[in-house]
Amino acid sequence: MSIELEIQLVAVVVSVACSLAGVFLVLRRMALMSDAISHTVLLGIVLVFFITRDIASPFLVLGAAAMGVATVGLVEALVRTRLVREDASIGLVFPALFSIAVILITRYAGSVHLDTDAVLLGEIAFAPFRRLEVGGVDLGPRSLWVMGGVLLLNITFIALLYKELKLSTFDPGLAAALGFAPGLLHYAFMTLVSITAVGAFDAVGSILVVALMITPPATAYLLSDSLPRVLILSAVIAALAALVGFWTAWLVDASIAGCMASAAGVLFLLAFLLAPERGVIAVARRRSRQRWEFARLMLAIHLLHHEGAPDAANESRETHLGEHLRWEPKFARRVVSEAADEDLLVRLQDGRLELTETGRDSARKAMLV
Amino acid sequence: MNPLRDLLFDYTLRTVALGAGTLGIVAGALGTYAVLRRQSLLGDAISHAALPGIVLAFILTGMKSTLVLVLGAALAGWLGTLVVMMIVRHSRLPEDSALGIVLSVFFGAGLVLLTYVQKLPDASQAGLDSFLFGQAATMLERDVVVIAVLGAIALLAVVVFWKEFKILSFDPEFGASLGMPMRSIDILLTTFLVIAIVIGLQTVGVVLMSAMVIAPAAAARQWTNSLSVMVLLSALFGAMAGVTGALISSTAQHVPTGPTIVLCATVLVLISMAFAPERGLIWAAVQRRQQRRQIRADAVLGDLYALAGHHESEHAHDVTVLEAMRAGRTDVHRALDILEERGLARRDGTGGWTITRAGRAEAEQAGESGPDGQHEREGSA
To answer: What CATH number did the domain enclosing B166 receive?
Structure first.
């Protein structure tokens, strides 16, 4: 495998793993917990590093994941004191823990591999240089194996606990009533998020973990209402963001992780504007269509109301609509001509408007008579 | 080294401390509103979103002057908040997701620009990445002037729009019903929050600046229920954290400024949460204990009253009797001491206890008003 291919592979695996866990974070309104966890795992790494003095130690991952779960626990403990609200307690806990980690790194670990830039930027470009060798056989980049494992863990977790996750996400009350132990599931899920964050953290840095965990699921959530589809879409979008990001970075020679986050942002923007049902443009078009539809119906009802009445001759003139329905002349002209196009009414020689049978029907139907 | 002497006579240190203190005041004051409005993490999004603005301002102007960079940061931060508001208004995504998207995508774009700048053949770009974690040591007097002027504008706005911001924070619907333009006021307040955040970026850094908005305000909240006192206290806490953090980081080797200031602010939060009267954890624990004791004393008083009913009124009862009545679950001696203090029970010469006239009245009242009355008295105790 070429170096480029290996980097792309790592990028795709990282993004997909993050996005799967992220779907439930977005749906459970815990998006910013990913921000907190992706920062505090650093403290876990640093603390374990001080004990083991080995940057490749597998305990680093364990320590980091434990710190992630501890972060969730701390935030919740802080909320339980009722002295600070949830948003503020997230904002208090993770900067404090992250600060401790940064100070420890700059003060005591300056000469080793841990440095603060790597924390923020990640080193996905170096992923191919750290190989996994077993018995002298090169098995590929180490991070590919690590993140592959994390991805598998995510898939297994979601597949095994799909029903439980779904229920406790959409109806925590019912989940508790049915005895699903939402607290246990919550912490198990947060452990999964932490493990994913640690793995991804190494590749793309702490803040871009947030980009990969939140943006693709949020994009998918704009495109579909069904949970399985949101999961699949989110994985596809994440993979796409990784590839587009990699090639952009390769073309302009910039940070790969930064480009992946930007690509995810662009994909989100596209969905935000163009999503078929909920996109800004679709909504605006639907609103305008409904406005004209409603106006035509109003016109038909108005005409039906005065049909056969003594004032019918006056009320059924286009020029009179401004007075009665408070329509601008231009608006009235367009409504009348659209209504005529739809065969709701016909324009008589003397300028009066007369409903057709279709027009009468739809007016009656609208008034429920 | 003596930090206090240095603060007075060392020019660099004085500048740094002044700058950090000023930004603490401004972030503390404006942060009050963010915390009260449950928008604490908006600050996080703003400070991260400012990164591309900083780098872009440098690319476009080629200057590293604080004013230019701060303006770039402010524009990007402001744009970021508008995007958050737009996502929340025009899609079904909850606010936390919108914040997460803006925070991370803007920051990612900033990193792309930053790596681009680092390749430019221009020596002066070195140090742009100190915006990530802040580097107070490089602060010059004119930077402090920029911070002070922008900060003064933001503080002035708090005073001028005091009433509007207060209504926005506590009852925006009421404000809207009075015909006040709540959306514009919201944008106005957010704009000044953006200013408060960007002036701190150089010192505290993009990554941690949000803590400077949240921590002082969260600490101040514990001490008071009044908005004006909270704003002042929060500004004071912010200044304390800023100055202390800057001092520590400039006197010790290899201690980054931003994280140190954040930790100082966190310590203030912990102290406040523990010791603040009325709300603090220790205060609450003491309160609970006193209440529990009160309840026990009342129970013993009830026993004494019941005993007095069986005997002629002045008959004294031995402690062991009372202990038996409480089934050994209560420290009867202590309860009796409390009752004696309140004049509800009396010890006679032989060591027995009698209920007093006042105690009788109290017990009768408690009996009449039933269990509810009991609760009422516990509540006010």
So the answer is: 1.10.3470.10
The total domain count for chain B is: 2
Q: What letter does residue A122 receive in the DSSP assignment?
A: -
B263 and B175 share a domain?
A: yes
Contact call for residues B80 and B200 (beta carbons, < 8 A):
no
- B101/A29 touch (CB, cutoff 8 Å), yes or no: no
- Is B43 an 8 Å CB contact of chain A? yes
Interface pTM, i.e. ipTM = 0.88
**Domain shared by B273 and B289, yes or no:** no
Q: Which residues of A touch B253 (CB under 8 A)?
A: 107
Residues near A56 by beta carbon (within 8 Å), at least 6 away in sequence: none
Decide which of B244, B262, B279 is a domain's last residue: B279
The CATH number assigned to the domain with range A281-367 reads 1.10.10.10
Structure-token match 């603005």, residue found: B53
DSSP sequence for B89-153: HHSS--HHHHHHHHHHHHHHHHHHHHHHHTTSS-GGGTTTTHHHH--GGG--HHHHHHHHHHHHH
DSSP letters spanning B282-298: HHHHHHHHHHHHHHHHH
Q: What is the mean pLDDT of chain A?
A: 87
- The one-letter amino acid code at A355 reads L
CATH number of the domain to which B324 belongs: 1.10.10.10
**For residue B95, what is the nearest residue in chain A, using CA coordinates?**
A29
Which of A30, A80, A99 to probe by mutation at the B interface, max B CB count within 10 Å? A99
Q: B217-230 pLDDT, tens per residue? A: 999 999 999 999 99
* Boundary-marking domain end, from B253, B279, B305: B279
> Is B373 found in the same domain as B258?
no
- Write out the CATH class of domain A3-278: mainly alpha
Range of the domain at B162: 3-279
CB contact under 8 A, A87 and B259: no
SS3 for A258?
helix
DSSP per residue, B315-354: --B-HHHHHHHTTT-S-HHHHHHHHHHTTSEEE-TTS-EE
DSSP B225: S
The residue of chain A with its CA nearest to that of B130 is: A117
**Per residue in A276-315, pLDDT tens?**
888 999 999 999 999 999 999 888 888 888 887 777 777 7
